[in-house]
Amino acid sequence: MLARVANNLFWMGRYIERSEHVARYLCVNYFSSLDAPNELSQSRQFVLKSMLFMVGDPHNDESDLKESDVLFNIGLNADKPYSIINCVKLARENANSARDLISTELYEAINKFYHYVLNYSADFFVAKGLYEFTTHVMEFTAVLKAKITSTLLYDDAYSIIRLGISMDRATQVIRIINSKYNDIQLIEAKKEKSTLPSSSLEWCTLLRCIESYDMMKRYDKDAPKSINTLDFLILNPKCPKSVINSLAKIVDHIQVLSNDRKPAKDSTIFLVNKIYNDYKYKYIEEIEIDFKIFIEKILTDLVTISKKMEKEFFYI
Amino acid sequence: MEKNLPIFSSYTFDDKLLDEVFDKNKNVKEIYQTLFDIYNKHSISDFEALNEYAKTSFFNQGITFQVYGNNETKEKIFPFDLFPRIIDKKEWDHIESGVLQRSKALNLFLRDLYHDQNIIKDGIIPKELIESSENYLKQMKGFDPPGGVYNHISGTDLIKHSDGKYYVLEDNIRTPSGVSYVICNRTALKRALFGVFDKYKIHTVTDYSQNLLEIMETVKPNGVDKPTCVVLTPGIFNSAYYEHSYLAKGMGVELVEGRDLFVKNSFVYMKTINGPKKVDVIYKRIDDAFIDPETFNPESVLGVPGLFSAYKEGNVCLVNAPGTGVADDKAIYAYMPKIIKYYLDEKPILNNVHTYHCSIPEDLKYVLKNIPKLVVKPVDEAGGYGISIGSKLSKKEIEEVKETIRKSPRKYIAQPIMSLSVHSTYIEDKKSFEPRHVDLRTFTLLGKDKNYVLKSGLTRVALKKGNLIVNSSQGGGSKDTWVLKN
Predict the structure, then answer these.
(1) How many beta carbons lie within 10 A of that of residue B266, not counting itself?
(2) Within an 8 Å CB–CB cutoff, is residue B273 touching chain A?
(3) 0.90 cut: is pTM over it?
(4) How confident is the model over B398-403, as a mean pLDDT?
(5) Which pLDDT score, from 0 to 100, does residue A196 have?
(6) CA gap B400, B393 in Å, rounded
(7) What phi, psi does B215 have (nearest 5°)?
(8) pLDDT of B108-164, one tens digit each?
(9) pLDDT at B331 (0 to 100)
(10) Taking CB atoms and an 8 Å cut-off, how many pairs form between chains A and B?
(11) Which of B212, B236, B273, B283 to probe the A interface (max A CBs under 10 A)?
(12) What's the CA gap between B125 and B107, in Å, rounded?
């Protein structure tokens, strides 16, 4: 497979995955805040700030945010690199460059997704369409991932797309955890001064943002709190969206691209295995000691893998 | 207009034009009767819905081209008409043998032009005509392309005149495009109106990519057992990118850009995730001037440095060969009957339109006097650009055309205004069928000891009333084209 096209497929996978997580974060946060038990998590400003923090455009001053602007920017403003519309456009642009390699069924599904997002009325979205739009985005991405699994040859191209999906899933899950962790820290800080109810709701919201609430309930009957939620979402191999699971998938798929039985020390596969094994044997208590540092470290590790892949496989 | 009226209820007739669907007495021609009966059962609103469905199908399949505006780039579908054109077996056999004859003659002509130039020495073609052609590549002189083939892919544009005969308007042997639309039109029609296919026995169009790959494999360089073939595209922003990706996918080969290839020791390689892989045959969809900045346009970023040297070393085959443009120059077109006779000793099967060459003093004189009766065309433009139809020009415009011709007569030819046949076409604005002018582009493949003609073609239709220019860049659409088996 051409190195350039491999890069396109990798990013197609990343942008498909990213659009799903951004859409879900918007939807879950907005709607769970409507009847939240405390004033802060019910505050619209608090929710909007959380959304901007998650997409990497934090609002740091005290000025009020305008709800329609924030929703538009994250949903349908093509000029914002983090917007859903931009993710979908880039997913399709990358698919275009690899169109001869992917199935007609997958391409058509991407194209339908693109036209849906492109033609969605921005006015309707910010006024009434938030649930409908974000739900459809999540459904479209589910269809795309089904088409990837069921219509592509399980070869290099498939593994590259899966690598993109897994890399972005790990990254987005960490970003979402970081964002909600940040929200919880703010709530906890306020709590000391007043009698706010527990932040358990925010841990539930975090689980819902990663589509893992129901399974967490099955796995652990205790109310979600810091330690069990983070353990489930980061280190538990039974949780399909956990970071460790994404890293395990990265290991599997990078193996397909490598012919070496004994990989060189400077190869991507060596690096990926090293990082995976490091996290595989971590335990949540050691992570919780300094969670901020852990977040920074894991994001840096993911970027290092991505850069290594670019150099080894994509000639960038 | 009543939305429940049959779809053909407001069809108009013009006695001066050859209507392919209706005869002079306004009766449906026999070959179309079954099809007409099926279509005419649809009410206007039914048909509108079908038309919308077909359009959405094109959009979702991403069969679009880019239109570049001042501020934004728009994605458009190539308008598709749901009423197919039918060509019977006898008529098709005539067309097929005619286009194949032309392709073979053009190949021999190109070989001669780049070797001994006997056709010039024998006084058939004027030397100046070749020497003055911008598309004659001196770099190709004395070179034998793998398999001895120059024009592996030819697109021949034909029209059906009011006398009922087919005439060739142009031979396109540089990078003829449009074949993917032939196949997609068939797919779209099947999706929208599958029932009509039960009523006619027609040839398939899905075997084109396989035949193209086989043709490419016949012209592999010496010493190569199983050649690696690729399609070379300028990239996703090219208006024909869909076609490039379609053909690569259809053949199961890589779609490469210039930046994916490099030349080392006169061999061409592509950069893959497993390291360099040698490439043997390249179907190039980039103009000659841009294929290699070391030999041609030094500014080109689309091409591959050293590609032409690798080609001349015989280590890679380029499809079509560089320098074929000299033979599809519209000035050469006028000599096609003589070229066919000279190389094949045969009478041309298809008619040529009489052509006045403005570099010949007598022809120039006639052209300048008779512009309103003529179509004036630049010799080296494609896409319908630069064409002036005399009968549509104002006095001022006629004078401007004359002045342009006088300045560079070698650059222009003129032909009598041909009456392109018309075909029943759904006009969205009017919500009814109306007659519109059509042409036909056929696709012929030549390989070493193998050839193939796609049993269909791209029927292009001028959607504006009275318009004779059918090119998509000029607002044209297309139809599915059925060639009957018997």
Answers:
(1) 14
(2) yes
(3) no
(4) 91
(5) 47
(6) 10
(7) -65, -45
(8) 999 999 999 999 999 999 998 898 888 999 999 999 999 999 999 999 999 999 899
(9) 81
(10) 62
(11) B273
(12) 16
The domain locations on chain B are 1-203+327-353+418-486, 222-315, 354-416
Q: Would the pLDDT of B3 be above 60?
A: no
B339 vs chain A: nearest CA distance in angstroms?
39
Within 10 A of B345 (CB to CB), how many other CB atoms are there? 7
Tokens of B291: 């294929």
Closest-CA residue of A relative to B257 is A4
Residue B282 CA, chain-centre distance (Å), reads 20
| E strand residue ranges, B135-203 | 153-160, 166-172
Share of chain B above pLDDT 90, in %: 64
Structural contact between residues B202 and B454, judged by C-beta atoms closer than 8 angstroms: no
> How far apart, in whole angstroms, are the C-alpha atoms of residue A93 and residue A88?
8
Distance CA A196, CA A30 (A): 20
User: Do the Cβ atoms of B236 and A4 come within 8 Å?
Assistant: no
Asked whether the predicted pLDDT for residue B287 surpasses 70, the reply is: yes
What is the domain range of residue A239? Answer: 3-314
What CATH topology corresponds to B222-315? Rossmann fold (3.40.50)
Helix (H, G, I), strand (E, B), or coil: what is residue B291? coil
DSSP B61-72: HT-EEEEE-SS-
Q: Give the three-class secondary structure for B389.
A: strand
Token readout for A9 is 């497929």
* Tally of structural domains, chain A: 1
Query: How do residues A134-174 score in pLDDT, each as one tens digit?
Result: 999 999 999 999 999 999 999 999 999 999 999 999 999 99
pLDDT band at B309 (very low <50, low <70, confident <90, very high): very high
Which class is domain B354-416?
alpha beta
